[in-house]
Design goal:
By secondary structure, the chain is of the alpha/beta class. It has helices at residues 16-28, 44-55, 72-80, 101-104, 118-130, 134-159; strands at 5-10, 32-37, 61-66, 85-87, 113-114. A five-stranded parallel sheet has the order 2-1-3-4-5, sandwiched between helices. The longest helix has 26 residues, at 134-159. It is globular and about 60 Å long.
Amino acid sequence: MTAPLIVILMGSRADEAHARKVAEAAAVLGIESVLRVGSAHKTPEHVLAILKEYETGPRPLVYITIAGRSNALSGFVDGCVIAPVIACPPPSEAFGGADVYSSLRMPSGVAPAVVLEPANAALLAAKIFALSDPAQRTRLTEFKDKQAEKILQDDGELHG
């Protein structure tokens, strides 16, 4: 099987720190990622070119889109591709955090998932890949086992 790829597409470079958290979590789960920048509002042709570049390749893909304020990027990408799209908007205090609604409300036929925590966005992508990749399933099982061991260790130290 061809190695899967997470394409992390940021609306602007201002989202890079958030995007790098996704990439770091993906690496822990054994998944390669690539960071790209393109705006649905300002450079739609560039975004289309990026999508065409990856959609024509042989690798299994998941797109993780990172855009805040008015998040057109996630819906735009989802409307253009067959691969799953996960919206992971950066945290915001603007509008009391209500700008997250632009990631939640989508028109019919457009369905990006929304995951707010960068590590969890990478985890969802890993679970999607695991549906058809036994090696990824094994890595996820090991990841979950390590999480459980940590909880049991912490409980033992406190309760012991």
